[in-house]
C-alpha cells in the first residue's frame, strides 16, 4: 500500500505542471481554493479531540506493520514534537488505513477540508553556484508558485528537488517528509492560507503517518516564515 503524505510522491505518474505552477509530485490542487488572507501571520491554537483508533499516550498500534510509536521515522518525529513543546501533536499521530495519492484523498482520510492538509514540499533554491534546500508547507488547496518562492527566498530560481536531495536534507522517506526531524534546520515558508483552519495535518516521517497541528504550530516547530506561497 502506498500512502503519500507530504514531500515528494513516489512513482505518482502525475504530469509535471508548468514552471511557476508549483513544480511536481505533490497532492493536487483544489479547483476552488479558499480566500487569501491579507495578513502574513498564523495565530490559531491546536485543540484536538482524539478520535477512536488514534494512538493514546504511552500506547502503540499498527497498521500493516507500521506502528505509530515503533517505526523509527515516526518515533523520531514524535520525539521532536514532544521536545519542541508540542506533546499534543505527538499524541495525535495517526496511521492511515487507506492509500491516499492526492490532497483530496488525504483530507477524506482524516475527515477535513482539502485546504487543511499541510503539504511538505522540498525544493532546491539556487543562488549563484550554491544550491540549498527550501521547505514550503503549503495548503493542499493549491500549488506553490516557484517564481513567487524565488522572490521570497532571494533565490535566482527554485527547482524541484530530486529524491536523493530530499533524503540528504531530511533523512526521511520520500512521500512522508515531515516539517521537522531533519539533520539540520531548513529555510521554511509556511502558507498563511493554513491559518483559517483550527487544525491542519502534516506528515509524520512516514508515508502512512500524519500529525495534527496549526499554522502557528508549524511556524513554531520549523522556525519558518508565514508567507503567501501561491498567487
Automatic annotation (TrEMBL):
Question: Do you know which InterPro entries this protein is assigned to?
Answer: YbaK/aa-tRNA-synt-asso_dom_sf, YbaK/aa-tRNA-synth-assoc-dom
Cited SUPFAM superfamilies:
YbaK/ProRS associated domain (SSF55826)
Q: Any idea which UniProt keywords this protein has?
A: Aminoacyl-tRNA synthetase, Ligase
- Record-annotated YbaK/aminoacyl-tRNA synthetase-associated domain positions: 99-220
**Which superkingdom does the taxonomy of this entry point to?**
Bacteria
UniProt name for this protein: YbaK/prolyl-tRNA synthetase associated region
Presence of the UniProt keyword Aminoacyl-tRNA synthetase in the record: yes
Q: Name one Pfam family in it.
A: tRNA_edit
Q: Where is this region: Disordered?
A: 1-61
State one molecular function term (GO). aminoacyl-tRNA deacylase activity
Q: Does the keyword Transcription apply?
A: no
Amino acid at each position: 500500500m502506498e500512502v503519500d503524505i507530504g514531500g515528494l510522491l513516489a512513482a505518482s505518474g502525475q504530469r509535471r505542471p508548468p514552471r511557476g505552477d508549483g513544480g511536481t509530485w505533490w497532492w493536487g490542487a483544489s479547483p476552488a481554493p479558499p480566500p487569501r488572507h491579507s495578513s502574513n501571520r498564523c495565530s490559531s491554537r491546536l485543540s484536538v479531540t482524539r478520535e477512536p483508533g488514534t494512538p493514546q499516550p504511552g500506547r502503540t498500534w499498527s497498521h500493516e506493520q507500521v506502528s505509530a510509536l515503533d517505526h523509527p521515522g515516526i518515533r523520531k518525529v514524535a520525539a521532536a514534537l514532544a521536545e519542541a513543546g508540542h506533546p499534543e501533536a505527538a499524541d495525535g499521530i495517526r496511521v492511515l488505513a487507506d492509500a491516499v495519492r492526492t490532497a483530496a484523498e488525504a483530507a477524506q482520510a482524516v475527515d477535513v477540508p482539502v485546504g487543511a492538509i499541510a503539504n511538505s514540499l522540498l525544493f532546491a533554491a539556487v543562488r549563484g553556484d550554491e544550491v540549498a534546500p527550501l521547505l514550503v508547507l503549503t495548503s493542499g488547496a493549491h500549488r506553490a508558485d516557484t517564481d513567487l518562492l524565488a522572490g521570497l527566498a532571494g533565490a535566482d530560481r527554485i527547482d524541484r528537488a530530486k529524491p536523493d536531495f530530499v533524503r540528504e536534507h531530511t533523512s526521511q522517506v520520500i512521500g512522508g517528509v515531515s516539517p521537522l526531524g531533519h539533520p539540520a534546520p531548513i529555510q521554511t515558508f509556511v502558507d498563511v492560507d493554513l491559518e483559517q483552519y483550527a487544525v491542519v495535518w502534516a506528515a509524520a516521517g512516514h508515508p502512512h503517518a500524519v500529525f495534527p497541528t496549526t499554522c502557528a504550530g508549524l511556524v513554531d516547530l520549523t522556525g519558518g516564515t508565514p508567507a503567501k506561497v501561491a498567487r
